[in-house]
Every structure is written in C-alpha cells, then in structure tokens.
Amino acid sequence: MEQGKVRMLANLIELNKIEVKLSKKYYGGISPKFYLRDLTKETLIELSVCETCEDDICVKYYFKDVHIDLNHHYEMVDNYGLSAILQYVRLSELDDFDELFYYDGVLGPLYQKNQTIFKVWAPTALEVMVKVGDLAYTMERKERGVFETTIKGDLENQEYNYLIRHHKSFHETLDPYAYASNANSKSNIVIDVDQINEPLYLEKLPHMKRKTDAIIYELSVRDFTMFSSIKASHPGTFMSLVEENLKTPKGNKAGFDYLVDLGITHVQIMPMYDFATVDELHPTVMYNWGYDPIQYNVPEGSYALNPQDGYSRVKECRHMVSSLHQKGLRVVMDVVYNHMYDYFTSAFERTVPGYYFRKNQYGEMSNGSWCGNDLESRHQMTRRYIKDMCLRWQKLYGVDGFRFDLMGIIDIETLNQVYNQASKIDDSFIVYGEGWNMPTAMSDHEKGMQDNHHKMLNIGFFNDYYRETLKGW
Hints:
Elements: E1 8-14, E2 17-23, E3 34-38, E4 43-47, E5 51-54, E6 58-63, E7 74-78, E8 83-87, H1 97-101, E9 108-112, E10 115-121, E11 127-132, E12 135-138, E13 140-141, E14 146-152, E15 159-165, E16 170-173, E17 180-181, E18 188-189, E19 216-219, H2 221-224, H3 238-241, H4 255-260, E20 266-269, E21 273-275, E22 293-299, H5 310-326, E23 330-335, H6 347-351, H7 380-395, E24 401-404, H8 412-425, E25 430-434, E26 460-462, H9 464-471
Parallel strand pairs: 1-8, 19-20, 20-23, 23-24, 24-25, 25-26
Antiparallel strand pairs: 1-2, 2-6, 3-4, 3-7, 5-6, 7-8, 9-10, 10-14, 11-12, 11-15, 13-14, 15-16, 15-18, 17-18, 21-22
C-alpha cells in the first residue's frame, strides 16, 4: 500500500480467505463493517472479520471461509461505502498454487483456415481479451485458469495481443506461446505452422557415440557475415549465414563455406530468439549479442529479411538450420532461461504477476543474474514453459543441442528434464552450459552448477578450473 495514495486494497490470499488493507489516513483505518459485492450476480453480503493486525501505515482485516467463484468479479465495501476490487494476484503465493492450477494442455494460437483458437494460462486474472487487429474478443475462463476463445474466419498473418486485467485496467501483452511476431515485439502474428516444413535433413547428421566427440564453433548470426569485404547478400541474417560462395578480398573461403571446411561437428549459435536491445527495423544502429530475452518463443527479427513479416524470421531460421544439417553440421542454440530483459513489462509478469520470477525469503526479487530478475524454474508452469520452448526449438527448428547461459540459476530437476525430453527424440542431443555458482535465491544443492555435476551426469559444463589453469592463473 503506497502511503497517502491508496485508501483500500482487497486481495484473495487463499481460495476462501480475503485480506483487506485500510489506510490509517482514512478514518484511522477503522471500519466496523465490511461487505462483499458480487459484481457478476449483483449481490451484497456482510462479512465477519475473523482477525486484524496493523502497522504504521494500515489496518489489515481478514475474512475466512468466504465462498469465491473465480469466474465472478467482486468488490469489498467498507462501512462508509468505499470499495476496492477483489484481486486474485496473490494466489500465486500459495504453496499449493501449482497443484491447484498446473495445466498440461495446449497453449497459444491454434490456427486453422476457418478459425483460430487462442488459449492463455492466466489463473490470477480477472478478465482476459485477445485483440486481433482493431477488434477485441472476450476470452472465457476454463479449467485451471486457462482463458480461451475461438475466432471464426481466416486469421493468417493477423497481428494479435492479449489484454489482461488484474485490477482496474487492462494491460496489453504478448503471447508467451506465440510462434511469430512483428518488428520489435509490438504484436504477435498468427501463422500456419504447417507451412514451416522445409526438410531438416536429420539423416545427414553423423551419430555421436560420445558427447565429448563434439567439436564446437561459436558464432553470432550478425557478426558472422557483417564484414563488408565478403560481400554477403544480406549481412548479419539467417540467410547469409548459410550463403555459399562468399570470399575474402584475397579469394579465400568466407562465411558458410569457411565454416564447412573447419572440421567441426557443431555450430553454437549465440542467442537467436527474440531479444530486446536491437531495433529490428534499423539493425545496424544498435549492437547486442542478444543476452536480453524478450520472447523465447520466436526467432530474432533483426536476423530476418523482413522483421514485419511473421513468416520471414520463422522460415529463414529453419532454413539456416536445414542448410547446416545438409553439410553434416549440428546446431547448438544458446538459451538464456535465467532472466528477462525487463521482468515488469514481460509477458510473464503481465500474464501471471509474481509467479514466473524468483523471490528471496523477504519477498524481494532474486538477482543472481545481476540483471534485476531471475526466472523461478522450480515453479511447475515455468519449468513446463522452458521444456515446451526447448521442445519447439528442437522439433520446429531442428536444433541439436542447448548451451545454457548462467545455468547455476536454473534448478537441477528442470535441466535434467530438458535433457531427458530431448534425448528421447535424438540420443546425440547435447546439453551444456555455464556452471558457475550464481547468488540466486535458491539452495546450493538445487543449483545447476558444476559442483553438482554428479546430479546431472548427462549435462556438460564450462569448467573454469581448466580455463584458469591453462591461463596460468
């Protein structure tokens, strides 16, 4: 409660328990009676206070055994007629929140020629709408906090966003499960995923008997073909990364042909998901390697020929992987499931506030990444999201391994599940990452760090002990 501004706040803190805060600047924080107004049924009932406590700012009132239907909207009303919307956001703090609301069904847009189904997991939301073009459609609350609607007609290439209300106002947000986006992550775009069907040539990839046989070359999509002297057709893009017949000024092989001749087995590509700090419409103005995630679920637009076209980045990213596979090269994707560029404006926080990001014992944001936020991978829907996106990148785009950035912020169970999921599809799949002990708000025995390697026998680590020894430090 912000001192001097908010007079009354009402939160559902358990499925049948309400907390009301009254500012001491308003009647000293004292109200002899409270009422629950059901805005859906237009009823008003008096509630009995079961407990109170106070601090320097407000008096807190608690009401137990209250029947709440999450499909309804409510207000708490005090003795003087002051009202406050009953919010559901603090339900995410419950120890059994995952048990109550975990959902394992399909999420995101399901496109068909005659209709598109939209589904988003937002269990603490009061209302959700999907805005397609200039029209907004109300979504219906379904099981376990999933909101769903079906829009008739052909929505291919239509832009959309979700509008989610947790208090008085709707906040516009991206779809965490979208497949495509326009430039600079303004909106998602509906695409027909069945059209993303260029062959992946997995049969051309030699089987790996031992993961340690991997010979890995790391590159940035942008940097690899940006130097003007090699005269790439589209410098810094997915397409030019696999462009053939590029030469240095002295006639030596450059770009893709150079890569093929190196004798490597794997190409580790620095972040190629959608990141925040490069203007996709002016990709040469600002520079970043991409360790600032904004959408894990779609490829980066500055690497596409047309970032405004939803299909461009998706098809071109798959084409890049397909072309590498044709030469027998496997692709490792650099993933950053430890933090977001801006947690407050992220689709995670706007969809289910307080759920996707880790907090310490005092309720403060964990900052083991030194980026202001850490993903809470131990929460079941966060873990599911990481696994779902890893599966998408493996199956839709054809990647053959993951390199995890700051892996010590992610819990061991999540990492093992990612590997097990991937290896069932491809037993040559590799997973490795930075195993430093990061100061995130999680016990050391849970961290995916190199000191816990015995708990992750199929996962590799960048080993700083060898690095420092080789450097003579």
